[in-house]
Amino acid sequence: MSKHIINRLEEYDANWIILQFPTLIGEIKEIHVSRNHFDESVFEKGYLVEGLSKYFSDRKDLYLVPRAETYAEVPWYVRAVRFISTIRESSGVRYPYDVYYPLEKSLAVAKKVGLNLEIKPAVEFTIVEGFTVDRVTRERGPSAAFDSKEGKWNPMAMLPSERPFSSFPYDAYYGVRQQIVDILTQAFGYGVVYTTHGEATSQQRIGLEPMDPVKSAEAVFSLKYVAKAASIANNVSITFMPLLFPGEKGNALELRLSGNLIEDGQLTQEGEYFIGGILEHYKTLLLFTNPTTNSYKRLMVEPFYRSWGYGIDGTLVKVELRENEGYLSLGFPDAISNPFLAYAAIIAAGSDGVKQKISPGDPVKISPRTMTMGERKKRKIHEMPRDLLQVIEGLESDNNYLKGIFPPEMVIEYAEHKYKELRDNLSSPSAYELDKYFYL
C-alpha cells in the first residue's frame, strides 16, 4: 500500500504532505511536511512532530503515522496531499490518547462477540453569515451576532411554508453545500448518497454511504474539514453546534448501523442484545455522543427517551426494516461530537449488550414524545440526563463497558476537559439570563 501511495504522490507531483490528527474533543490539527522530507518509511515509523504532546497531558516525543487509506488531494492548497494520522510514541507503541485507539479496540471486541458492523452517517450543520463573538470584553456581558438569508428576522428572507427539503431559492445556501459534496466525493473519495435542506433555518444535511466504522469516522472528520474550508471560500460561517436557533431542531449526527444486527429484513438476536447494551449504558454513552453543554439544550427541543421501537421517533434506538435489509437508527448523537470516540463508545456499549445478553425489553408502539410523564413512568421509560454534569457523574457507576477499550488516562483527561467546559459555562451569565432577570 505505501509503495502505491508513494507512486501516487509522484504522479500528482505533490509538493506538500499534510498530516492531520483529531484532538480528544475532535478539533482538526495538521502539519505540512515538505515532500523532500517524506518517504515510504514514514508510513511505518511515523513523522516526529515536536510539541505535538501539548494537546495532551504529558510531554513525550510523538510521531504521526499517516494512514494510506486517507489519501486526498486538497484542492485549496497547491500540490498538497492530506493523510489522517494515528499517533505513536518514540518506542513504537500506540499513544493512549490517539482517538483511533478506542475505535479499533471496540471493533476487536465487537468481532470477538460475533458482530460485523457498517455505519451510514448523516451529518447536519448550519450556515450563517457574519458570525462574530466579542471575546475581548467578556466581563461586560455576552455578545454574539450572526445573520442568515433564511432567518425569520431577515426582511429579505424568502420563507417557505416548511423548511425540510426546501428547493432553491428557499434553500439559500445550496451552492455552498453542493461545493462541500463535490470536494468530498471528487477529491477525498467518500461516497455521498443524498444532500438536502434540513428542518431548521439554514440547516444542511449530507447523507454518506455505509462504510466500515473506521472509514465512516474518517469520512465525518473529513466532511467537517471540507465544510470549514468551504465556509471561508464563500464568506460564510459553518457550525456543527447542537442547538443554534431557540426552539428549532438542532444539528444531529444520525447513525444507521447495519451488518449482522439485521438479516433478511429481521432484527437478529445480536441486534436485540446490541440495543440492550445501548439502553443499559446510555447515560455515560452521552459523554462521547453528546459532549457539550449545548448538547442538552438540543435534547430539550428534540427529546429522546430510554426506549426502542420499530420506526418510532423519540426512541434511543429506532429499528428501520426494509425488504431484505434494515438498520438501527440512532438520532441522538450530535454532529459536533468527535466521531472516533462517539463510534467507539456506541460499539462498546452495544458489544457489551451482546456479551452480557442484555434484553432491551419490549419495543414501544407509540412515540414516548406523545406520552404523558405518568405513562412514561409507568412503562419505565426514562428521560435523558438534563445536563453534562449528570453524564460525567454517571461514569463513577457505569464504566466497566469502556475498560479495555478506552485507556483510563484518556477517559480521565476527556472527562476533566468536559467538566471544565461545564464549570466555565455555569459560571458565566447567558444572554437569556441577562434579558430575563436584569430588571427584576
Q: What is this entry, summarized?
A:
This protein is α+β, with helices and mostly antiparallel strands and 440 residues long.
The coarse overall form would be globular
CATH architecture annotation of the largest domain: 2-Layer Sandwich
First CA to last CA: what distance? 67 Å
Strand content: 15-25%
Q: What characterizes the major β-sheet?
A: 9 strands, mixed
Count the E strands: 17
The value of Rg in angstroms is 22 Å
Low-confidence sequence ranges:
none
CATH class of the largest domain: Alpha Beta
Work out the helicity level. 25-40%
SSE order, as H and E? HEEHEEEEHEEHEEHEEEEHHEEEHHHHH
CATH superfamily of the largest domain: Glutamine synthetase/guanido kinase, catalytic domain
Mean of residue pLDDT values = 91
Count of helix runs: 12
Helix/strand-derived category reads alpha+beta
The CATH topology annotation of the largest domain reads as Creatine Kinase, Chain A, domain 2
Structurally, the number of domains stands at 2
Observed structural traits:
2 domains; 33% helix; 440 residues; 9-stranded mixed β-sheet; Creatine Kinase, Chain A, domain 2; Ubiquitin-like (UB roll); 6-stranded mixed β-sheet; alpha+beta; globular
